[in-house]
Design a protein that fits this description.
Elements (H helix, E strand, L loop, with lengths): L36 E3 L2 E5 L15 E5 L2 E3 L6 H11 L4 H5 L1 E5 L11 E3 L2 E8 L25 H10 L7 H9 L27 E2 L3 E2 L29 E7 L7 H8 L5 E4 L19 E3 L8 E2 L3 E3 L2
Parallel strand pairs: 10-13
Antiparallel strand pairs: 1-4, 2-3, 4-14, 5-7, 6-7, 8-9, 10-11, 11-12
Length: about 300
Amino acid sequence: MDAGQKGCCSPARETKTNAPSEVLLFKSKPANPMVKIDIPGGTALLGTSAPLIADDGEGPLRRKKLRPFRMAPNTVTNAEFAEFVAATDYVTEAERIGWSFVFFSDVPSDVRETQAVLGTEWWRRVDGATWLAPHGPGTVQPAPDHPVVQVSWNDAVAFARWCGGRLPSEAEWEHAARGGLGDVRYPWGDAEPDDETHMPCNIWQGSFPAKNTGADGFAHTAPAHSFAPNGYGLYNMVGNVWEWTADRYRVKSLKKSVERKMAGMRGFRLLKGGSYLCHRSYCYRYRIAARSGNSPDSATPHQGFRIVWDAP
């Protein structure tokens, strides 16, 4: 089928597109500089010594020297992306391709038939799903303060170049997410989120994929500044939306099953942080060391990005 290939967290397009050439031609800049938080350099931790999804390449725990850098406290919002589009006339890949992926329960009621993704049938191909209509034509327009979604890796790179920044490396992302706490599972420490009493981030509560109770207050995205920030002042480093990074998605393994999986993911880019569609019973990837990958032209309603800058 041409709607996507099987994957746990995000469906991927099978027909790859090239990054739009406009990314090198932007001459305008944001009218108001984006907020930047200083992240200290030094010895950063990457991965975990106790991987929970070993085939994703979560382990082992490594150490890497990083220079200081700056990071936006939140993922790029719809308001920020709208400014980018207005200033540059940029057209996202989902708009140019004409369709994108939508979670089955969010497909507009007047769309009678959709093409499902084999193996993860809760993902459907919906014509006209874009960043302005993340769940398809006629659905509620996204709030300005929520993360922009239905943006591909190529779209994220274009925005980053326009604002004078870049996407973070995996090491930078994990270092920032830990917030100075060291070898912890989550940005707030090791306390496990649940469906009823401890909900420090926007993930799925209930039974996936049939029922999301929205006990944390959100059935879809939350505002980009929701929940308590971590020790560096960064919001939603896990949950809410997956975040594109600069790195390619690679897994080193001697297992033949992993080699076969990775052969079908050549050129994929790394995503970190999990999303509002993650639940421990299905996609236990809202942990700092957790990883996922998708093709650079793919977009979904639970993928966004944040920007980093080199320190002056």
